[in-house]
Amino acid sequence: MDYKFFANLQREFALPEKGILSRVLHKDEKVNVTLFGFAAGEELSAHSAPTPAVLYFLEGEAELQLGTDKVQAEVGSFAYMVQCCPTGSLQRQGFACCWFR
User: Fold this and answer.
1) 32-38 and 20-27 beta bridge pairing
2) The domain that contains 51 carries what CATH number?
3) Distance CA 84, CA 2 (A)
4) Do the domain assignments include residue 11?
5) What is the number of helices (H) and of strands (E) in the chain?
6) Does the pTM of the predicted model rise above 0.70?
7) How far apart are CA 99 and CA 57, in angstroms?
8) Residue 50, Cα to own-chain centre: how many angstroms?
9) What is the per-residue pLDDT across 60-100, written as a single tens digit (0 to 9) for each?
10) What total number of domains does the chain contain?
């Protein structure tokens, strides 16, 4: 097949009640597209990726660390991070995002 199609990413999985859930939508030698769901109160400690990455928020809200800045992400938020940009998140409620790398 030459493509993958998802009519509505928000329906691909529900937020977990506890922990962090991930689902790979597509992965090959050029790109990795993964859905992440974070339960309320979950935290992702600061880290950096060896390649540029994109986050697109599908559900909920989170405080997102991008480099030395902290921003509020919500449904529809988009973030592009260059290679090795420190990134992390803190949630008061659960959230779901699509990660492209």
Assistant:
1) antiparallel
2) 2.60.120.10
3) 31
4) no
5) 0, 9
6) yes
7) 9
8) 16
9) 888 888 888 889 989 999 998 888 777 777 666 788 877 88
10) 1
In which domain, by residue range, is 74 found?
33-100
| Four-CA torsion 8, 10, 14, 16, nearest 10 degrees | 140
Q: Quick check: 58 and 52 in contact, CB under 8 A?
A: no
Confirm if 33 and 24 have CB atoms less than 8 A apart: yes
User: Residue 33 corresponds to which amino acid?
Assistant: V
Token couple for 35 = 């859905």
Phi, psi of 31 (to 5 degrees): -150, 150
13 lies in some domain: no
| Tokens standing for residue 49 | 């990726």
